[in-house]
Design a protein that fits this description.
Blueprint: H1 6-25, E1 32-34, E2 40-42, H2 43-59, E3 64-67, E4 71-74, E5 79-87, H3 89-93, E6 100-107, E7 110-118, E8 123-128, E9 133-135, E10 138-140, E11 151-156, H4 160-172, E12 180-182, H5 187-196, E13 201-205, H6 209-221, E14 225-228, E15 240-244, H7 249-263
Parallel strand pairs: 3-5, 11-12, 11-13
Antiparallel strand pairs: 1-2, 3-4, 5-6, 6-7, 7-8, 8-9, 9-10, 13-15, 14-15
Helix pairs in contact: 1-2, 4-7, 5-6
Length: 267
């Protein structure tokens, strides 16, 4: 991208500095604690989030930051940063290099920029409204692969209904829909891999805005398609959606609806 906004430059700086924190702790015997929702948190999560908050607030003191570890911070206003200091913490804590820093800026309920950075592979994905999507400063686009060559991932939250649907999708999607279904354990990377053309689709079930905001925006800027699970228009912050390259999106919607119907008790 030839000309980045001050907001994007700040987000990139924050992601890179947070990445240095994660590099310091990665593949070490880091202490893991369990939250009330059974997810885990590490010292690296907290330190990474503090680094991001400081960098953003130094430049934009009137903005707000919604962070996974510290909740809403700053003044109430129209600009809200959605920050996940480590998406894929369980992977990170177990020395699996599928994790990322995820930062998105939302203005009046519309995502206007997104950053996803995996420090273990030096992979920086970013996008700004109307300027396209980039991977390590090279413009990227979704793939053009059909269903028979497609690979998709499924990401889910903690709700019991989401867990059940997740398992149905992971193990029951027929081969005619897609050739491979996986769970990478990092929603942000699931999404940006679709944007880069490494995956053809990702199905999101009930995660938090800081998990998916940056990634889904990068897909949109890379030319992808995003809808609700029933195929209707998606709007932020809805957290159940299908994001794909658009080639066989309607088929995905049809099959997801079949799986939902299987899990719905008869009247």
């Amino acid at each position: 991208m030839e000309k980045k906004s001050k907001e994007l430059e700040t987000a990139i700086k924050a992601a890179l500095q947070a990445g240095k924190v994660l590099e310091k702790y990665f593949e070490t015997a880091i202490l893991k604690n369990e939250k009330e929702d059974k997810s885990i948190v590490t010292l690296a999560d907290k330190e990474s989030e503090e680094v991001i908050k400081k960098i953003i607030f130094d430049v934009f003191p009137d903005h707000s930051i919604l962070g996974e570890e510290t909740g809403m911070n700053g003044r109430e206003g129209e600009y809200i940063w959605h920050v996940d200091p480590i998406d894929g913490t369980r992977n990170f804590a177990n020395a699996i290099p599928l994790f990322a820093v995820s930062i998105a800026l939302v203005f009046k309920d519309e995502i206007i920029l997104g950053i996803v950075y995996n420090p273990s592979t030096r992979s920086m994905f970013y996008a700004e409204k109307g300027k396209g999507a980039y991977f390590n400063d090279k413009k990227i686009f979704v793939s053009k692969d059909e269903a028979n060559h497609g690979m998709l991932t499924v990401s889910r939250g903690k709700a019991n209904t989401d867990e059940k649907l997740f398992r149905e999708l992971l193990y029951s999607l027929p081969k005619k829909v897609v050739s491979s279904v996986r769970d990478l354990g990092c929603a942000a990377l699931d999404l940006v891999y679709v944007a880069r053309g490494g995956l053809e689709a990702n199905i999101q079930l009930g995660l938090n805005t800081y998990d998916f905001a940056a990634g889904v925006f990068i897909i949109q800027e890379a030319g992808g398609k995003v809808t609700n699970l029933n195929g209707t228009s998606w709007e932020f912050p809805e957290n159940h959606f299908i994001a794909s390259n658009g080639v066989f999106h309607d088929l995905l919607v049809e099959e997801v609806q079949k799986q939902i119907k299987k899990l719905t008790p008869s009247a």
